[in-house]
């Protein structure tokens, strides 16, 4: 209890906590608590936690970039990844349009965010500001949850608690994917890497244990067995493991080698989720192939376990040019999809066929959609707003073209040669045409139409 109100008080408590922890030489623990993100002293001396960010919906996963004083978290209700500086009280959205972002990891060397989504069953990566977002893994994922990075060796690790529970690893560019643990595993929730001793630790909530193994899954051994109730997330400082437990609603700790010296760090937590040791030694600096000039890549430079130890990558749906470094300007073949309350585009250039939501607001009942390849506008009908609208293919510059005397706009078709737009209206039972900019509107057919729906043009042959 006795939590400070949000605002300047937080900054004060934080700097205090930071100072005290440096003096006490005990690590700071950063954890998500659904309604907020908090810090607590790793030795549990103070017995209470400080709020970093308050008034959140559903904060689940958390990570940080120590060098830049950045804290990141996923919000499952807001379907976004957000960030704050730990000396500021404001926060901002980094990546939006997610479904269920359960796991999050910051690549402190390549300055990237990696995350799992258990609803889309994908692992994605983006720059720290959310740009150049790319799907890395999309096949054979069932319920991906925790994700941990080892950028020094250029591998990422994740847990999957689906039908066939397992821990997998792959290069941080998605290459060399391999299952490393798939026996004696049920609900692998927490996952963390001991960078110094090169060990992987994980917590299993169903089998109530914490195990560890080499980074390739070999030499597996038990650390804590049988005494855990529902371990969720796991992190580690020099010699100590820390984990959150859903049933005890506490943060617990033990010795990372022997599993003894078990103790409770903080109890009575509202809903403890992900946890990280917020210390610079968890993010040691190493020169990487991406450190200089972004590896020569136009967009994403991703670390790889294979020679030359990095690969250039492009935003989802965009192909890499033959030089292996530069991305094409955009997707060349695109499928457009109207889905009642949103519009999506799917690149057909790449095998993952990931759908990207166009960032257009106030779509209530989109029905038909078409595209003008000349100016790059997408056109669609909205039956509830009773309008024809258009925007660029990225969702920007959205405008209403026609909204007068429209009842139930249905089919739509772009004449990209003569620069006209045709549509059907099942309310007025008409087919109409206008210039692509919305001027010179004309009724083409109003007789003998009962429920005119789909419409298609062949402009080349008129």
Automatic annotation (TrEMBL):
InterPro entries membership: 6-blade_b-propeller_TolB-like, Cueball_EGF_LRP_Nidogen, LDLR_classB_rpt
Pfam families: FXa_inhibition, Ldl_recept_b
Gene Ontology MF term list: Wnt receptor activity; Wnt-protein binding
Record field: transmembrane: none
Leader peptide range in chain numbering: none
Any one annotated GO CC term: plasma membrane
A GO BP entry: canonical Wnt signaling pathway
Coiled coil location: none
Per-repeat ranges for LDL-receptor class B: 69-110, 111-153, 154-197, 198-240, 376-418, 419-461
Superkingdom: Eukaryota
Protein name: EGF-like domain-containing protein
Organism: Poecilia latipinna (sailfin molly)
């Amino acid at each position: 209890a006795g939590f400070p109100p949000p605002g300047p008080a937080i900054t004060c408590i934080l700097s205090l906590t930071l100072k005290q922890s440096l003096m006490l030489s005990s690590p700071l623990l950063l954890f998500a608590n659904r309604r907020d993100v908090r810090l607590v002293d790793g030795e549990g001396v103070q017995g209470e936690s400080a709020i970093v960010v308050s008034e959140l919906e559903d904060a689940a996963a958390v990570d940080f970039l120590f060098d830049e004083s950045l804290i990141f978290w996923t919000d499952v209700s807001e379907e976004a990844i957000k960030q704050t500086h730990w000396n500021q009280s404001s926060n901002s959205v980094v990546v939006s349009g997610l479904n269920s972002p359960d796991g999050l990891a910051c690549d402190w060397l390549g300055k990237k965010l990696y995350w799992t989504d258990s609803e889309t069953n994908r692992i994605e990566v983006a720059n720290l500001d959310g740009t150049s977002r790319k799907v890395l893994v999309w096949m054979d994922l069932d319920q991906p949850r925790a994700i941990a990075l080892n950028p020094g060796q250029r591998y990422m690790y994740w847990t999957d608690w689906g039908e066939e529970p397992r821990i997998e690893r792959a290069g941080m560019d998605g290459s060399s994917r391999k299952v490393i643990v798939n026996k004696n595993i049920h609900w692998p929730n927490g996952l963390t890497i001991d960078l110094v001793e090169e060990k992987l630790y994980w917590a299993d909530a169903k089998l109530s244990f914490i195990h560890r193994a080499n980074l390739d899954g070999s030499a597996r051994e038990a650390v804590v067995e049988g005494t855990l109730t529902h371990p969720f997330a796991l992190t580690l400082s020099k010699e100590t493991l820390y984990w959150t437990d859903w049933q005890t609603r506490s943060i617990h700790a033990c010795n990372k080698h022997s599993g003894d010296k078990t103790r409770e760090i903080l109890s009575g937590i509202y809903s403890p989720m992900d946890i990280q040791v917020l210390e610079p030694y968890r993010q040691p600096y190493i020169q990487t192939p991406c450190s200089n000039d972004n590896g020569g890549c136009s967009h994403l430079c991703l670390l790889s376990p294979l020679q030359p130890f990095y690969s250039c990558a492009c935003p989802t749906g965009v192909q890499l040019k033959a030089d292996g470094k530069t991305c094409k300007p955009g997707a060349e073949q695109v499928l457009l999809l109207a889905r009642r309350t949103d519009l999506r585009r799917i690149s057909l250039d790449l095998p993952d066929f990931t759908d990207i939501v166009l960032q257009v607001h106030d779509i209530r009942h989109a029905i038909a959609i078409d595209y003008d390849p000349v100016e790059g506008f997408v056109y669609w009908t909205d039956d509830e707003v009773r309008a024809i609208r258009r925007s660029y293919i990225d969702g920007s510059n959205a405008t209403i073209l026609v909204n007068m005397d429209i009842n139930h706009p249905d089919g739509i078709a772009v004449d990209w040669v003569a620069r006209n737009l045709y549509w059907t209206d099942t309310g007025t039972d008409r087919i109409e045409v206008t210039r692509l900019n919305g001027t010179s509107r004309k009724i083409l057919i109003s007789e003998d139409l009962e429920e005119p729906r789909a419409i298609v043009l062949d402009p080349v042959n008129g």
